Amino acid sequence: MSNKLFRWGKKATGCMLVVGSDIQQLSQSFAETNLIDALHVYHVVNDLNQEKIHIEKLHNQLTVVRINLIDSHALKKLLSHITSSKHQIELCIFQAYFSHAREMDTLLSQEAEHEWNNNGLSAVSLSQVMIREMLMRQSGTMIFLGSQPQSSAYYDPLSQSSFAAIRALSQSLAREFHPKGIHVCYCMLERWQGNREDFVNSVKKACLHLHQQPNSTWSQELSLGI
């Protein structure tokens, strides 16, 4: 009985979500940093083929989640798990899908739909849920990692349009929710290099800097020259 009372009375602690498709090293880097700050990391892999949400706690600082972000029922289950684990969301980082340049005339309609679902639609679905949770405390940070407008050499028009849509979403959310205590920022990268330690560390430091900014100096966009 005393153990149950302890769990019920336990105060919620902060957590962060790192969401995307190539985020393993970034999540691990955050988990190692947060050994000091005690901010639990949810490594959330966006997989449109995932029929049921899969959650596995690897250790005290890191939980791995596989989820289809456009499945609203799965998102509700994720939030329920976070709440039952006595965590509250302080920071969410969404990594857009950085595909390589492709020939547009050979791109199938199914591939185009998958690209949009994996990027734009997933970003909308996730941000709606995250910001709704943050509004309860009028506090939190939502960061989108995407490409720079001038990165046309690396990405085809479809990918560029997906990034542009996420950037527009970020700008719209920032205008609406900055006055309500939610920091929303779009971070521009030339390309994604998730296997490079120096790149991952730079992205991590930038995200932590944005999260820790006082609201009088909040940035809506940040260009990372890495």
Automatic annotation (TrEMBL):
InterPro entries according to UniProt: NAD(P)-bd_dom_sf (IPR036291), SDR_fam (IPR002347)
Organism: Acinetobacter venetianus (strain ATCC 31012 / DSM 23050 / BCRC 14357 / CCUG 45561 / CIP 110063 / KCTC 2702 / LMG 19082 / RAG-1)
PANTHER family the UniProt entry points to: OXIDOREDUCTASE, SHORT CHAIN DEHYDROGENASE/REDUCTASE FAMILY (AFU_ORTHOLOGUE AFUA_5G14000), OXIDOREDUCTASE, SHORT CHAIN DEHYDROGENASE_REDUCTASE FAMILY (AFU_ORTHOLOGUE AFUA_5G14000)
SUPFAM superfamilies: NAD(P)-binding Rossmann-fold domains
Classification lineage: Bacteria, Pseudomonadati, Pseudomonadota, Gammaproteobacteria, Moraxellales
Protein name per UniProt: Oxidoreductase
